[in-house]
Write a structure and sequence with these properties.
The chain has helices at about 20-25, 30-35, 125-150; strands at about 1-15, 40-45, 45-50, 55, 60, 65-75, 75-80, 90-100, 105-120, 155-159. It has about 160 residues and is of the alpha+beta class. The mean pLDDT is about 95.
Length: about 160
């Protein structure tokens, strides 16, 4: 078993109110619906349990699930980190944050995400696994952004 990770960072201005974006980001039902490859998110207090749909990594089918501790600093920042319950071994996890900053015409939304997954693959496959993970993360981000804008009836511009 080897651990692999990929990270991404994105920033844009969403032409919508910060409060409207905040409401979406703290709604686990909407987050699951808007995020590709996510089957379900179950919230239990400040812990969210994420269940992914099947993904293919170098011909290996995986459907990881993991628990995140959510720290909400309304309305400007959400931080999350992998925090499984005592005794539960999870082979995947994420950490990162969302920052929402008001602008003249909307809200600057900055995100940073790092995903780690343990896979039964040799460490030497790292470059190929990381490339696949980056493609998946990019697709997730693009589709999530599209869904967020559509839901809000908003547009975006570069930050």
């Amino acid at each position: 078993m080897s651990s692999f990770f990929a990270r991404t960072r994105a920033r844009s201005v969403v032409l919508a109110r910060r409060e409207d974006i905040w409401a979406l980001l703290i709604d686990p039902v909407l987050m699951a619906r808007f995020t590709p490859f996510v089957r379900n998110i179950t919230a239990d207090g400040d812990h969210w349990f994420w269940e992914m749909s099947g993904l293919s990594v170098l011909g290996l089918k995986v459907a990881p699930s993991f628990t995140e501790r959510m720290e909400l600093r309304e309305p400007e920042r959400i931080e999350f980190r992998h925090d499984p319950p005592a005794g539960r071994v999870e082979k995947a996890g994420a950490q990162g944050w969302y920052a929402l900053t008001p602008t003249e015409d909307g809200t600057e939304l900055t995100t940073e995400l790092e995903i780690t997954v343990d896979l039964p693959l040799p460490r030497a496959s790292g470059p190929a696994v990381r490339a696949t993970m980056r493609k998946v993360i990019d697709a997730m981000g693009d589709r999530f952004s599209q869904n967020l804008l559509e839901h809000l009836g908003a547009e975006e511009r570069s930050a």
